[in-house]
Amino acid sequence: MLQPYRELAAVPRVPGLLTWATLGRLHMTGTPLAMSFLIAGWTGSYAIAGVIGAALLVGLGVSGPMRGRAADRRGAAGLIVFTGVCYGIGMTVLAFLPTWLPSSWWPLMALAAFTVGLFNPPVIPVGRAIWPRLLSGSALNSVYTVDATLTELMYAVGPLLAAALVAAVNPELSIVISGALATIGALGFARMLTLAGLGGPVPTIHHAKPRRAGLFNVPGVVASLMLSFFLVAALLMVDMTIVAWARNVNLPILAGVLGAVWAVGSGIGGLIAGGLTGTPRLTRRVVLNLVGVAALVPVLPPVFDPASPWLIGVVLLLGGAAIAPAAAAANARLGELAPEERRTEAYGWLSSASTAGFALALPTSGFLLDHGGPSYAAAGAVVLVALGVVLAMRIPAAKPVPVLS
To answer: Measured between alpha carbons, how far is residue 223 from residues 169, 217, 249, 275, 363 in Å?
Structure first.
């Protein structure tokens, strides 16, 4: 089972690229928490904090495809350096705007957050797009699994670091450090891309200029993006469900503990899946994800009341084992489907689809929690993953003929 990992370690630059790609996304997982504390303290409103946090995410989602296309056509390294520096400066400005402006000026803060989001360095789409240029076979499947597993780890580590800085110092410093991490991660990743010979434009196989065909015309691309949309929305709904249940029982610390258990389960599943040989079966992995989410419904109130944190933890640990493998298979499949010269753009659209999933999950989970309870919100997540299963069945396994730009 360790053979694919040995193959990864043997390829020059791959360990370094993985390390810097992971560090380059760490800031994204802790920023929303720090921003919520900052804005809530400034305005006294969590609703406004949510609006400003959403503005940052919308900026990221809107610019994702454009930055991906620019990376494909003009080169990724220079773009990542430029956006990384701008993003770090922008986050520093956002951290101190509340000290310079009265709280009634919060719409300006929302506009500024949207603008800063436009400059989020495209480390994630570029990081996912480069692997087929370096690896193949079981090693390629393994690197996508490692990437998904490390992403889950960042979602456990990032908020904890941000919360520690908020508690020990203040939200301003937490946001400044988040911006600094984004800049450092972007510079390091860009340097590794250059050393690996991947910092320039993606070479096109053909030089003829036929009638332009859209990326969305490639069979399976739209279904892959929609699959990510539903999976991300479902996972965030589960996360919101656990937070709400922990608050309802007056033990908010359980939200962090159970979230960590969920991430550990995902990490274990990812490590096991990454060591398997053969082509991953996307539909099977999404079905396992569905089973894991569905198992939460009967262990949460009002179906099971009072709920047992131990039972919930066991379900999250086992069900979480399907998260990273499913995400890895979905990411790898999109990389197979997208033409090489449009691959980063495709992953930019994937980031936008994930952001849209967040936008769907927040109000939907809130409505179900208010009108039914945690088990109802978990059932809503089940419906979303079930739709993902249907989409996974429609995504072709074979890579189509490349579409030229």
So the answer is: 45, 11, 39, 27, 24
H or E segment at 318? helix 309-320
Distance from C-alpha of 288 to C-alpha of 86, rounded to nearest angstrom: 41
Burial readout 91-119 (b: 16 or more C-beta within 10 A, e: otherwise): bbebbebbeeeeeeebeebbebbbbbbbb
Q: Name the architecture of domain 1-202.
A: Up-down Bundle (1.20)
Tokens 């436009």 — which residue? Answer: 118
Check whether the bond before 107 is cis (ω within 30° of 0).
no
- Residues in the chain, overall count: 405
Closest residue by Cα to residue 157 from 16, 36, 266, 29: 29
Segment (H or E) for 273: helix 253-274
Amino acid at 306: P
What's the pTM value of the predicted model, to 2 decimals?
A: 0.74
CATH H-level, domain 218-398: superfamily: MFS general substrate transporter like domains (1.20.1250.20)
> Which residues neighbour 47 within 8 Å (Cβ) at sequence distance 6 or greater?
none
Lookup: tokens for 131: 């692997």
Show Cβ contacts of residue 54 under 8 Å, excluding neighbours closer than 6 positions.
359, 362
Contact, 185 vs 60, CB < 8 A?
A: no
Domains 1-202 and 218-398 share a fold: yes
Helix (H) or strand (E) holding 364: helix 343-371
Q: What are the structural domain ranges in the chain?
A: 1-202, 218-398
Which amino acid makes up residue 383? V
* Whole-angstrom distance, CA of residue 117 vs CA of residue 158: 18
pLDDT tens per residue across span 69-116: 888 788 888 999 999 999 999 999 999 999 998 888 899 999 999 999
- Give per-residue pLDDT as tens, 199-237: 877 766 543 344 445 778 888 889 999 998 999 889 888
Confidence class of residue 348 from pLDDT cuts 50, 70 and 90? confident
Q: Which two three-digit tokens encode residue 301?
A: 């109130």
Please, are residues 320 and 312 in contact by the beta-carbon 8 Å criterion? no
